Amino acid sequence: MEKEKDVPIVGFVPTAPYVIRSGKYKDAAVEIMMFNNYRFLKFLYLEMNKDPVASKNRLHQHLEWLLRQGENRKTQVICPQCHQKKIRYFSARGSKRFGYSLSLIFASCDKPGCLKKLESLSGGAKIEIYPFRFSSIAKFRNKTDQRSVAELLRNAFDLPARLTAETAFRFFKE
Ligand SMILES: [Zn+2]
Asked: Closest Cα partner for 131 from 113, 147, 115, 144?
């Protein structure tokens, strides 16, 4: 019997940014919060998931879509190590206590040689390596570090410094 072709599961796809209507984050678009409050969105989403029988409301569906999109965006910057492929990973040097320094200079594509180069660039200092995904923001405890990661992502994805909800939405949707 011929195997059926894999059909991607087409879920909910929004047509506009989602703006929170009330509470502490009133008037904030979740697309912007991906950059400045990722950990809260993730927390909110996990809370919503706790009740598996409840039907998903608009925000729940929207967050599910958005968090997924945050994991598969394409970077626009060429690997500074080999100048061939697009960057996939960044290195963080520093510590939880004193904070991390991050730069696109210390980014790399997925080639083992390039990743190895990041280590030699650190001059023996310990580095941590993360993918250019929004979930990487949540790997950092410190607010300042979270902001640095978000800015690094913004630059890696070649987004303007002043993001509007609409621009951010289009970026996550493309
Ligand atoms: Zn490379």
From this structure: 115
